[in-house]
TrEMBL record:
This is DUF7662 domain-containing protein. InterPro entries: DUF7662 (IPR056079). It holds the Pfam family DUF7662. It comes from Bradyrhizobium lablabi. Residues 4-80 form the DUF7662 domain. It comes from the Bacteria.
Amino acid sequence: MNVYDPLRDYLKAQTLSEFVLSFEQIEQIIDAALPRAAQRASWWETLRSPQEKMPQREACLEAGYLATRQADAKSVKFKRMPARR
């Protein structure tokens, strides 16, 4: 089991197409502290470096969401990916 599996499951259960979670909320969901690297936008960017497998990115993508760290460096916007045909 990956530490970000609870985040994936949380995202899968969402009905909103777009929403923001604070780092604190994400830490509650995963029941662990986020690493310092989470403050960097590139750590969250799901479309950046797709060949570089990172568990937090994989969790978001598996749930059907794109993640973008917000300018405050303390929260992340999750946006549902368009349905694939």
